[in-house]
Structures are given as C-alpha cells and as structure tokens.
Amino acid sequence: VQLQASGGGLVQAGGSLRLSCAASGRRFSSYSMGWFRQAPGKEREFVAAISWSGSTYAADSVKGRFTISRDNAKNTGYLQMNSLKPEDTAVYYCAAAEPYYSGSYYSSASYGNWGQGTQVTVSS
C-alpha cells in the first residue's frame, strides 16, 4: 500500500488542523494505520493509531486533543488535531501495518508502509 499524507500547515496555538492519509490499492480496510511525528533533533514518536477493526490508541500527550479516524470507503485515514500547542510542531507521518495486524501499535517497527510526511507548525 502507498500512502500520501496531507493537511499540514502553520497554525496558532489553540488552533486546529486535520491531517489526511490517502492510501492506494485495495484492502485498505484490512490495514491498521498509525500517525507518528518527528520534531527537529528528536526521535520519531507515536501519536495515534487505529486498528483495522476500528480500535483507537493515542499517546498520553495528545489524548483529549487529537482524534484518529478512518473512512474505508475513501481509502483515507485522518488525524483531527485540536487545541494545538507549540510542542506539537513536527513532521507528521502516516503509516500502515500489515493486513489484520494484531501486535503493538505504539512502535514504528510495527509499520511497513510510510507516507512522505507533512509539516505541522504551531506558533505561540
């Protein structure tokens, strides 16, 4: 599966953005999807994930502010980001795990397919 992330941009603190991750190919509904981010000088970190069955997972730092979802009919995953903070500034990557994956969603090693990343900048 090929992934393309979009929707990043510059926003003031407290604002919102919605990232999209468009997937090519069939069987999109069988892929679990995740969002990760990487800030300058830092390691890539887990943000949120949604399993092929619809279960969702989020990092503590974004719980209550970010919501992950998917539209299987559109082959697209989403990350709705509200109440953005300057520390959310990073390049955001979407990723897909193998079909019907059932392991940990928190590790980047669980995902074999990655999009190109989209920059999110939150100004104070």
Give a verbal description of the structure.
With 124 residues, this protein is mainly beta. The protein contains no helices and eleven strands. The protein has strands spanning 3-6, 9-12, 17-23, 31-38, 45-50, 56-58, 66-71, 76-81, 90-99, 113-114, 118-123. Strands 2, 4, 5, 6, 9, 10 and 11 form a seven-stranded mixed sheet that branches. Strand 4 and strand 5 form a beta hairpin.
Distinctive features:
124 residues; mainly beta; four-stranded antiparallel beta sheet; 11 strands; globular
Shape: globular
Q: What is the tally of beta strands?
A: 11
Order of helices and strands: EEEEEEEEEEE
Mean residue pLDDT: 96
The helix fraction, in percent, is: under 10%
State which percent range the strand residues make up. Answer: over 45%
User: Cα distance, first to last residue?
Assistant: 37 Å
Q: Can you summarize this structure?
A:
This protein has strands spanning 3-6, 9-12, 17-23, 31-38, 45-50, 56-58, 66-71, 76-81, 90-99, 113-114, 118-123. The chain has 124 residues and is mainly beta. 36% of the residues are buried.
SSE layout:
Blueprint: E1 3-6, E2 9-12, E3 17-23, E4 31-38, E5 45-50, E6 56-58, E7 66-71, E8 76-81, E9 90-99, E10 113-114, E11 118-123
Parallel strand pairs: 2-11
Antiparallel strand pairs: 1-3, 3-8, 4-5, 4-9, 5-6, 7-8, 9-10, 9-11
